[in-house]
Amino acid sequence: MNRLEIEWHHLDREGKTCDRCSDTGETVRAACADLVKKLEPEGWEVTFKETLLTDRELHESNSIYFNGIAIENLLPGTGKSENCCASCGEILGTTAMCRTLERHGQTFEAIPAAMIVEAACNFIETQAKGRSVVMDIKVLGSGCPKCRQTEEVVKEALAEEGVIANVEKVTDALKIAGYGVFGTPAVVINGEVKSVGKIPGKEDVKSWLRK
Q: Rounded CA gap, 73 and 69, in Å?
């Protein structure tokens, strides 16, 4: 039996969470129940896990993972962002920014069931084809405008090629130096440094994805 764990992370302070997390919680539980019925006959055991976050982990609140892979990395053309959350602000007693998902020009504060189901199906499809679920891509840099542009170019190339990848931003100087990189932005794919000190062209990124 194959196993798929769907894990939902959200803020919890004395049993309270924000409105958008609460809405996502209801949706992800319902989606998991539907996926159990759909996937069990196909040999998949689907489980749900809820992980509570502290105030310091607010930036990760309202995120969903599929066997450890973030939902935005399983949905082509999807990225994470954030906006001001009045509900979290009320809970925490200060202005708070919460995670959102951006896809096709839309911003999603609560994650829709359709996106959860699509991400699960994309995960399973990659397994059925015998591919690695995730191409591991790291964008190295301090978070400067060029670094953010590089991340966007990478995500656009992934979406256009239909490739699923885990895209991670690495900002720690020691970790960056560990790759032997002394100029940023830099792009590392499956452990191999592909670009250093410039914003790569989208066609260049696509060529790296095909290898």
A: 7
Q: Is 88 annotated in the active site?
A: no
Q: Which of 21, 85, 98, 147 is catalytic?
A: 147
pTM: 0.69
Half-sphere exposure of 117 (CA within 13 A, CB side): 13
Assess whether 147 carries a catalytic annotation. Answer: yes
Q: What is the pLDDT along the chain (211 residues), one digit of tens a residue?
A: 889 999 999 999 999 999 999 999 999 999 999 999 999 999 999 999 999 999 989 888 999 999 888 898 888 878 888 899 999 999 999 999 999 999 888 999 999 999 999 999 988 887 776 555 567 899 999 888 999 899 889 988 887 777 777 788 898 888 899 999 889 999 999 889 999 999 999 999 999 988 7
DSSP SS3 for 153:
helix
